[in-house]
Design a protein that fits this description.
By secondary structure, the chain is of the alpha+beta class. The protein has a single domain, classed as Lipoprotein localisation LolA/LolB/LppX (outer membrane lipoprotein receptor (LolB), chain A), CATH 2.50.20. 21% of the residues lie in helices and 36% in strands. A twelve-stranded mixed sheet has the order 7-8-9-10-11-1-2-3-4-5-6-12. A hairpin with a 4-residue loop joins β9 and β10.
Length: 272
């Protein structure tokens, strides 16, 4: 009974926990190359999903292909040594009100992530690459799960490198004209539809890619009747070469270790 009440409390807090922010600005990855001339000529992007405009085909001036964008994005993700940004997360269950949250995210290679949620209530998610911990201070409870489930969950953005690699191997990719919301000269929406939704664990993923900086500005995952949208702003993305040249840009390893406080309840559970 105590465990059931705890889980119910978690779900209640989570439903209140998720908020949106303005369209993001990105910091360039110094180790990556400039976009192709076709990309510089102008591509369409947007912060809105599932609208008729968002689903439209890209304009005729598109010269890069979805496969080229995916390959370049994978290369940029693989070169990341340190990544931090502000996050606005919106969860939209079918037929229900959106759940909003805001926080800051820090990421290192190897699936390590730290997501500090500030609004609407304090929460902390920490991944050490194998275990994800979710701390709820108001309830004095901690939930943990294996990180391998992140790529098909509402926390997919905590390990984008692994998630994007997984999506690329199991999906059909296409570029789409995404409408207003992003700079149409440098941003493209890359839509990934699984070849077998039943085994892949999601229905659709869309990522908005800055083709000049090769960072993801927004990601959306749709599955089980729920859409989760994560917008990134105040992005700081540093390559392996840049961190080597300037060690001050390195994120301390201690950020990605978590020890539950004494007296808190700890549960093994899959997070929503």
């Amino acid at each position: 009974m105590r465990r059931g009440l705890a889980l119910a409390g978690l779900l209640a807090l989570l439903r209140a926990a998720w908020a949106a922010q303005p369209a993001p600005q990105a910091t360039p990855l110094p180790a990556t190359a400039s976009p192709s001339p076709a990309a510089s000529a102008g591509l369409s992007g947007t912060a809105q999903a599932l609208s008729p405009a968002a689903e439209a085909e890209p304009p005729a001036r598109f010269k890069v292909t979805a496969q080229q964008v995916m390959a370049r994005l994978l290369k940029a993700q693989a070169s990341l040594a340190a990544f931090s940004c502000d996050v606005s997360r919106e969860e939209v269950p079918e037929g229900a009100a959106p759940r909003l949250s805001q926080g800051t995210l820090k990421v290192k290679p190897g699936g390590r992530a730290r997501f500090e949620i500030a609004k609407p209530s304090p929460q902390l998610l920490v991944s050490d690459g194998s275990t994800l911990w979710m701390a709820l201070p108001e309830a004095r409870q901690v939930f943990r799960q294996e990180t391998r489930s992140l790529r098909t969950s509402g926390q997919f953005f905590l390990d984008l490198t692994s998630s994007i690699r997984y999506y690329s191997k199991n999906s059909q990719a296409r570029l789409r004209s995404a409408g207003p919301g992003f700079d149409p000269r440098s941003t493209v929406a890359l839509e990934l539809t699984p070849k077998d939704p039943a085994t892949c664990g999601f229905d659709k993923v869309v990522v908005w890619v800055d083709l000049g900086r090769w960072v993801i500005l927004q990601g959306e995952l749709t599955g089980s009747g729920t859409l989760v949208r994560a917008k990134f702003s105040r992005i700081h993305a540093y390559s392996l070469a840049q961190v080597k040249a300037d060690p001050s840009k390195r994120l301390p390893d201690k950020l990605f270790h978590y020890q539950p406080p004494k007296g808190w309840e700890v549960f093994d559970s899959l997070l929503p």
